[in-house]
Amino acid sequence: MHAAATPPEETYSYLGPAGTFTEAALKQVPEAAGKHWRSVNNVGEALADVTSGRSIAAMIAIENSVEGGVSATQDALATVPGLRIVGEYLVPVNFVLVARPGTRLGDVHIVNAHPVAYAQSRGWLERELPDHGHIPATSNVQAAASLFEDSQADAAVAPPGITEHLDLEVLARDIGDNPNAVTRFVLVSRSRVLAEPTGADKTSLIVELADDEPGSLLAMLEQFSTRGVNLSLLESRPIGDELGRYRFVVDLDGHIADERVADALLGLRRTSPNVIFLGSYPRADKREIEYHSKFEDEIFIEARDWLRGLLSGEPD
To answer: What is the pTM of this model?
Structure first.
């Protein structure tokens, strides 16, 4: 007799295996506690779980304080329809160098590491192991696990808690080049239910420029600046169909229910051939958004009422 499959509403997908920073981010989601967590190999598989209904949501990395945006995630969100970001989570990032028991630092010639982890610890590796080679891994935990497989690597860059899962020796700790490095993760689902505004919110968009012509980027940015909307992230990604065509990944301060944000989105809709709304959700740092009083909701509402009065012939 086969055990019943876990229903989708009880399943969350994440980049695994157990012990990754992505799992650490998922541990911050109260709704995920006690549910089934499905380990996947890459962002595409995680999002496919959501779009197919296999999982209710997926945790994916979207930005790092050192390397910037995660291009694989940004491109996937731009091309996979029907997805919404419903929350963001911050995870401090640091690394250890681990090896099979009995290995010394002087024995290390080849290091297995996820490309992002390698980039964030490259300074230490080049300083302490100037002649080392690098083999890329699909995840930070897989880099360590590969040491027990048929791997050419002598050591791996891994998360600090890796020794709780694998019998490895730590050759060096805190090898990240930036001790304050943080990775931002987002929880992605198909839900169309918007979180209520909190006053400390973020809205994510993907916006295509109209054409490769002078002033097109400025025209896009003016939709935000003229309404007092601050951008916390602005990164370009090639659309890929021809040279000179770009889409922009945008994070802005505020919620779509805020009048200034809604008005900016209307401006974008008029001037851009494609605007993808990825969601409005509470900021992970809970920092309340500050903006000039001339961009209060009441100002936009009064302006609309004034125009409505003019159109309906109301007396001044």
So the answer is: 0.85
